[in-house]
Design brief:
single chain, 505 residues, alpha/beta, Ferritin, 10-stranded mixed sheet, two-stranded antiparallel ribbon, 19 helices, 12 strands
Length: 505
């Protein structure tokens, strides 16, 4: 393809004319499953070349090269015939259902068992909840042809498309709910750099979205690959779990584009496992995460956690998962909202107490409130800690807006160079003041526990300007704050019910 820069625009222009697609969310989801099949088809050609015994899990009629690729002989499926095939054959078969004519099985649905290799099992998992929204078969053929122009067997074009794919992932900030699937690349890259990956280490993200942290980790680790043994360790160094189907599809495709033939990324809910049951085999050297926050969990989910850690808030529960799944001497960098930092409810205090007593919380970077703007205004923080010894002291550093910026936005996002001053301070730590307020300060664990009551809200932003938000942003902010408040109300009600239940007994 000669015009990669216009790739996304061409796809969008075609889909805007289809009555079945409503908005960017459906457009991107439509693109997602087709891109997966195109990328997977390229991978299968490589696997067949390397292994004469390789057999595709996808039945021949449903392989991209057999139904999507236009051989320019006038026989390519299009119109109603193409729609019938996609809706009645392709999707059911890839979901695991047989396509029948009468009682006769014409195309067998793909079958997956515990013995199925990961690189094949991902096909059924990817299509489990995928949808074809398009209703015009002619437009669908046009869309397929644009995607099929990609020559992913060519190294330069494949690498270039990997960059274009990033722009597709960024669209999730407007298509997703408050950017829940996407963490700005400048942030994930900074966290991976500070964690300093090493060959042989295993890194995990238990709510990996589209794989931003996984790719930042791989980018840092790739610099150290020197031998074939290093390449193998690199390929086996990531582990991801994603609850939602749509970002899972994008993440799998992302990993395949990064030449991970066996992407260890699973479609599951990390919170549906008793944390006390984790063994050493379930732990990782490094954890990089931006847990979902602002949501609340049901009582049955909280039942998977010790009673003192059983918060109603999603981010709190993920923090417990992280602590239980980090190896001895392991390292973690986690994004958490301000509510966790100053929260005083029993579960939050218990989580922070466990962190300070059992982990070394050495650094907290306070991020500007508009890092995720305009999709959420919630102020966030990066917590860096390791499982070495109990916390002795914690450094707090406030990252102020760069010169010339009042706030970040979709057109003026955070960039990698905005972390330059943070990196400079990181390697030469000292206490700093700005406008008479602490910008960087070190606290002992005893101060944080005894004097401050486990309040990690230190070196905050004393002079934040009030920003007048657009109506859509204001609504999103209100919904997030309401979700957080509802989670707190649910927790209090659970406590009251427990007390009443005890009295009745």
């Amino acid at each position: 393809m000669s015009n990669l820069t216009g790739f996304v625009k061409r796809l969008r222009d075609i889909m805007r004319n289809d009555a079945g697609i409503n908005g960017d969310a459906q457009r991107i989801e439509q693109i997602a499953w087709m891109l997966f099949l195109k990328v997977y088809d390229t991978k299968e050609q490589d696997w067949e070349f390397a292994d004469d015994d390789y057999v595709s899990i996808i039945p021949a009629p449903c392989r991209w090269e057999n139904w999507a690729h236009d051989k320019k002989d006038g026989k390519a499926l299009t119109g109603d015939e193409l729609l019938r095939f996609v809706n009645n054959v392709l999707f059911p078969v890839l979901k695991g259902q047989d396509y029948k004519e009468g009682d006769k099985v014409v195309v067998a649905g793909i079958k997956v068992s515990s013995a199925t290799p990961i690189k094949q099992a991902i096909v059924q998992t990817t299509f489990a909840d995928a949808n074809n929204y398009m209703k015009d078969g002619v437009l669908l053929r046009q869309l397929i042809n644009v995607i099929d122009e990609l020559d992913l067997s060519d190294y330069e074009e494949s690498h270039a498309f990997g960059e274009i794919y990033e722009s597709i992932l960024k669209e999730l900030q407007s298509a997703g709910s408050s950017g829940e699937f996407y963490t700005p690349r400048a942030v994930t890259d900074f966290m991976a750099q500070m964690i300093a990956p090493q060959i042989g280490e295993q890194m995990a993200d238990f709510a990996c979205g589209t794989g931003g942290f996984l790719t930042s980790w791989l980018k840092e680790l790739e610099k150290q690959v020197k031998t074939t043994a290093d390449e193998l360790a690199y390929s086996n160094s990531i582990y991801g779990i994603e609850k939602k189907q749509f970002p899972y599809i994008l993440c799998i495709t992302n990993m395949l584009l990064h030449n991970l033939d066996v992407p260890r990324v699973y479609h599951a809910n990390s919170l549906l496992h008793n944390v006390l049951d984790y063994t050493e085999d379930d732990r990782f050297d490094v954890i990089l995460m931006n847990p979902p926050y602002g949501g609340s969990e049901k009582a049955d989910v909280k039942g998977h956690f010790p009673s003192d850690l059983a918060s109603s808030e999603t981010a709190d529960l993920f923090m417990s998962v992280i602590m239980y799944r980090l190896k001895q001497n392991g390292r973690a960098a986690v994004i958490l909202p301000d509510g966790f930092m100053f929260g005083t409810d029993n579960a939050k205090v218990a989580i922070k107490k466990k962190m300070l007593n059992e982990f070394n919380l050495h650094t907290v970077i306070r991020l500007p409130g508009s890092v995720f703007a305009p999709y959420t205004s919630i102020t966030t923080n990066i917590l860096f800690f390791d499982k070495t010894w109990p916390t002795e002291k914690t450094w707090f550093y406030r990252m102020d807006m760069p010169e010339g910026y009042k706030h970040f936005s979709k057109t003026k996002p955070m960039k990698q160079e905005h972390f330059d001053k943070v990196r400079e301070w990181w390697h030469n730590r000292q206490e700093l003041e700005a406008d008479g307020f602490p910008k960087a300060k070190c606290f002992s664990a005893q101060e944080l526990a005894d004097n401050l009551g486990y309040n990690l809200d230190q070196c905050g932003y004393p002079h934040e300007e009030e920003v007048v938000l657009a109506p859509a942003e204001l609504i999103a902010r209100y919904e997030e704050e309401r979700a957080s408040l509802n989670a707190e109300i649910d927790r209090v009600l659970e406590d009251i019910k427990a007390i009443l239940g005890g009295e009745q007994a």
